[in-house]
Amino acid sequence: MSDLRIEQIEAVDGPIEMAVAGNAAAGRPTLVLVHGIQGTRRIWDPLIPVLALDWRVIAPNLRGRGGSFVLADPDRYGIADFADDLAAVMDNITGNVVLVGWSMGGLVALEYVQRYGLERIAGLILASTSACLHAEGLEPAIWFRGKTPEALVEEARDRATRLKLADTAKNIAVAGAWLSAAQVDYRPVLDRIDVPALVLHGSADSECPLDHGRALAAGLTTSRLEVLTGCGHVPMAEQPDAVARSLANFAAGCEVASPS
What we know:
alpha/beta
């Protein structure tokens, strides 16, 4: 990834580190890739070299991971806090964005829409995620079972091994994020989304069952659902070529005509 650069911006609560690759092109949105609850920007490493051939790509480390700031209070790692970090990233981008959220990153993307609107967003991709992890009528998406930060720290270690996450968030960030993620419900937000949307979901996702992807797509009138056959919760690692192709094809449909 010779073209990849590590940059840093200032958010309200501290510095945010982000990987930047590719170059901006007229009419082409920037792809902003948001990691999950335990992941870091490194989860996107299999995709970035391919996407950066044609697109500017930014993968931030939200608070509590990599070179971004760390806070000692688990209550400072709520989904709304991550959305504020994302807003700082967005403020440093010129032009429109295709916002891509994987797992918890999908919740962060929906929180961003709820708090900041859609003005800069040309398209939305939600992968392996849900609008409500404990929605009635669906098998719950249970990433952790602990009820306290201490219990969640122990679970986080085991889950990182199970999902083969080589680079992970600080345990306190994971614990605080789950206590928030388990409570949020973005189903009312879906009606407000009028930009093109793509829902990507693995058919064998045990962390967030496929019915969550189906329900999410059904709630988004501008979306289409793409099911990755045989894929689990981390499609970027399991089917990177297919995912990169899906992201690029979708982003191409979000281009705007250059002024004449």
